[in-house]
Amino acid sequence: MNPPDAELEAIVQRGLRAYRDGLFYEAHELWEIGWRDEPDPVRKAFLQGLILVAAALHKLTRMQSPSGAVRLLDKAHARLAGVPEGMGGIAVGLLSGDIARAARAIERLAIEGRAELDASLLPRMEAAEEIASSSPAGARPRP
């Protein structure tokens, strides 16, 4: 049997492939499989945060609902608040900052009557060890 951390990382990686390909609904579905069976409340909150990010981006890109996307991103940000850095192999702090930044950018789009988000503002789900090794502060600048 795999250790719990390896199982969580495998779940995260399956959804991450879809997320990075812009298949947000599919990423949401893949993470939800793991979320349903997760007994640990912190790991469950982590997976729910990922699910909410993917759902928000689906809501924005496919359903053209900026306000719905902002609500889901704000919920994702709240779910990730108590999650330790590196859970599931993800740089949680970087992701949380990106979620807040994306939500504010989407709010501005909604005011302008638009729903397309610049790809550079999509919340990044980067490997924690890559972020930690890329700079002394543990965070990479945005491309």
Helix and strand arrangement:
Blueprint: H1 4-20, H2 24-37, H3 41-61, H4 66-80, H5 92-112, H6 128-134
What would you say this structure looks like, in words?
By secondary structure, this protein is mainly α. It has helices at residues 4-20, 24-37, 41-61, 66-80, 92-112, 128-134. Helix 4 (66-80) runs antiparallel to helix 5. The chain is globular. The protein starts with a helix and ends in a 9-residue tail after the last helix.
Number of strand elements: 0
Low-confidence stretches: 135-143
Mean pLDDT over the full residue set = 88
Structural class by helix and strand composition: mainly alpha
Dominant shape: globular
Strand content: under 5%
Radius of gyration: 15 Å
First-last Cα distance: 39 Å
Helicity range = 55-70%
Short description:
With 143 residues, the protein is mostly helical. The chain has helices at 4-20, 24-37, 41-61, 66-80, 92-112, 128-134. Helix 1 (4-20) runs antiparallel to helix 2 (24-37), helix 2 runs antiparallel to helix 3 (41-61) and helix 3 (41-61) runs antiparallel to helix 4.
Which key phrases capture this entry?
6 helices; mainly alpha; globular; 143 residues
